[in-house]
Amino acid sequence: MLKGKSNRIKVLGLTALAILVLSMRFPGPEKPIARDFNLLQLEEKYEFIQYKENKLDFFGQSKPWKNLFDKMETLAFAGTGRISIVHMGGSHVQGGFLPDKIRYNLTQMLYGAEGERGLVFPYELAKTNSPRSIKSKWTGKWTGCKSSVSSESCGWGMSGINATTYDKDASLSMRVFNYDSVAYQFDEVLIYSSAGKIASMQVTLDNAEQIYCEQEQPYLHFKLSAITDSLQLRIISKDSTQNYFTLEGLYLRNSRSGLTYSAIGVNGASTGSYLKCERMDQQLESLKADLVIFGIGVNDANVPEKDFNAKIYEARYDSLIEKYKRVNTNTCFLFVTNNDTYYQKSHPNRNAIQVRETMVRLAEKHNGAVYDFFGIMGGLGSIKKWQNESLAAQDKIHLSKKGYELQADMMSIAIREAFGHYLDKKDLPN
User: In this structure, are 411 and 321 located in the same domain?
Assistant: First the structure.
């Protein structure tokens, strides 16, 4: 149970109006196509999970959230508009099970709400694990560099990871998918790299023309000749001075209305490691996030209790938040508390309690919301119970695929209930 003054979203069934809005999409002159918004349901089969606490806790002023829910309503009624969601975290985001299922759930709640795929990174190119929704092949030798590794200092963009090649004929091909392995389509590509333009090797895309902007942008912009679901990138060296290329991520665009859910995750990432990303400020402009889901904290808290400094942790979050606010003053922030973990497998990590308290303070300062996953999963020591049900890994830090997808379903339902309440009341609860 969270302490402090908050506006609580109660777990109520959606009203008739909410169900009507969320079960229909109006694509132009065609008839509405039904979508059962309540199709996603939880089977309350685990006694240790606090299902009644599966909700969002709102703090501060409600204006940013009203703006977000109004955009969601427009998408539901008129089938128009674009909503950008960014999910930041560590290995639980890089691994893909959590963000991929949330993305799928949210886009399935409204017919045809699947918009752009958004920001992606070909993790296997950097010799690390990749979400199953990102498939990549390449030629040439590439070397990865992660901002979460304290000994590395490569310079990063907003993805917190990069891959560099010195091969003069290297290439990369990619396809990205939703949860059901249906490939996303796109007709524009942004390629993020050092300084936003290639000062070393040059980049080309098959069947694409590079768009040159009058003002320097923190990315290369390509327009494809036709919509596609496959990217073919080639690295070309024009002269002897061009001897390397560093990739920091790609944004796959299309012109459709809908919801874009970009995942930014790096194994071992903390608030401090993301602040090392010197080109994040410039590159965030291309995301223009309406909602940021912050799940950074497990790695910050993975220290002896006496060594966790909540003030520094909070200040680092403040700095990250300001980066997003500079792009969009109406950005909403949803803080997801740590899942329960053990420190060095020996005892429950009590720093999760301080993380939760810090996130409440952040939500109060920045008109945010908190999803208290730590409390919902059962609190201190509960990961052992999740482990016994094959919902958590043996390291007592990570969840299993089954566990992350359960968390994704619960978070999706909590967002659904908050939106449904807004549709019914046109306000957040007092």
Answer: yes
Q: Give which of 32, 38, 41 is closest to 112, Cα–Cα.
A: 32
Tell me which residue range forms the domain holding 8. 1-115+256-430
If we measure between CA atoms, which residue out of 304, 264, 235 comes closest to residue 146? 264
Q: How far apart are CA 163 and CA 158, in angstroms?
A: 14
pTM for this entry: 0.92
Q: Which of 192, 221, 255 is the last residue of a domain?
A: 255
Checking phi first, is residue 260 left (phi over 0); if not, alpha (psi -120 to 50) or beta?
beta
CATH of the domain at 279: 3.40.50.1110
Kindly report the CATH number assigned to the domain that includes residue 189.
Answer: 2.60.120.1360
Are 316 and 393 within one domain?
Answer: yes
Number of domains present in the structure of the chain: 2
Q: Does 283 share its domain with 402? A: yes
Instruction: Quick: pLDDT tens for 347-358.
Output: 999 999 999 999
Helical axes 401-425 vs 63-78, angle rounded to 10°:
90
Report the residue count for the chain: 430
DSSP string over 35-89: --GGG-------TTS-GGG-S-EE-S-SHHHHHHHHHHHHHHHHS--EEEEEEEE
pLDDT, one tens digit per residue, over 90-144 is 999 999 999 999 999 998 877 668 899 999 999 999 999 999 999 999 999 999 9
What are φ and ψ of residue 106, in 5° steps?
Answer: -65, -40
Question: Is 357 found in the same domain as 241?
Answer: no
Cα–Cα distance measured from residue 153 to residue 145, given in angstroms and rounded to the nearest whole number:
8
d(CA 217, CA 203): 15
Q: Which pairing describes strands 332-336 and 7-8: parallel, antiparallel, or unpaired?
A: unpaired
